[in-house]
């Protein structure tokens, strides 16, 4: 049996932000891993900490963000303690990110050609590729993301492109850099459904070829089902359930996962998709017990006062829930 190799491990990661002298506890003891050549999903509502997790993995939290505790191991080495030269090497060869907002990811006064060249020079500086070779990589990457006229795109400035085209340029730059791990933060946000499907198929094919490991962040259960082999359900900065994607979606154990599944529209037309009552808690004073307790239909006094710990439910599937643990 082939031994599993984790290219990335997140262990007990807790992150806070300080805003107007008030500390907000956004991530709390987040744990998950990414196997080499595999795709892992993180899914949850807006504001649940998905983007903060990705920024922590790349070690680019804003100045008011603090890693309170935990480790992020890349090939066994904690990136949070890396000296600057190793951290730069990690960003050059290890992990690259597709940000959610292409407008903030591209410089509006520099041509796409020059932004591509700078990014690829940085990513491939050890290979000493010529300008022509870098531009060839750029053109190939643009064609991969369904931009049919690479020369016109390269000669354009970001403001001359639509939002969807800018997003595809960002995806192309990241893919052309040929890093080990792709952090995809809502990569299909600005794309129409046909282009999004092509991008997701491209990412999936690269993963299946063993060329790439992917962390796919989204609130879309359909995207997670299509692209990933494992999934982590995130609620209010905590991972509440995880495991094989088909197993988790086929047999959701946590009430939050079940509520997310109930939010999906019914193709048969039988019934109306449900919402989840309430809202994500205030991170400056999160609940003392389970963070989902104020919205949970099965809440008990134990849920309000005690934090649930992860437990296996079988087949690598796990959840953090007293109800599931007790088999109710």
Question: How would you concisely characterize the structure shown here?
Answer:
With 328 residues, this protein is of the alpha/beta class.
Task: Give me the secondary-structure category.
Answer: alpha/beta
Report the oligomer: single chain
Strand proportion:
15-25%
Alpha-carbon distance between the two ends: 36 Å
User: How many strands?
Assistant: 12
* Largest sheet data: 8 strands, mixed
Mean pLDDT: 89
Q: Within the largest sheet, what's the order of strands?
A: 6-7-8-3-9-10-12-11
- The rough form would be described as globular
Annotation field: number of helices: 13
User: Helix-strand pattern, N to C?
Assistant: EEEHEEHEHHHHHEHEHEEHHHEEH
Poorly predicted runs: none
Summarize the amount of helix as a percent range.
25-40%
Radius of gyration: 21 Å
Textual characterization of the structure:
The structure is a single chain. It is built from 13 helices and 12 strands. The two termini are 36 Å apart. It is α/β, with parallel strands linked by helices and 328 residues long. The mean pLDDT is 89. The protein is globular and about 65 Å long. The longest helix has 16 residues, at 193-208. The strands form 2 sheets. An 8-stranded mixed β-sheet has the order 6-7-8-3-9-10-12-11, sandwiched between helices. It has a 4-stranded antiparallel β-sheet with strand order 2-1-4-5, covered by helices on one side. A hairpin with a 2-residue loop joins strand 9 (230-235) and strand 10. Helix content is 35%, strand content 24%.
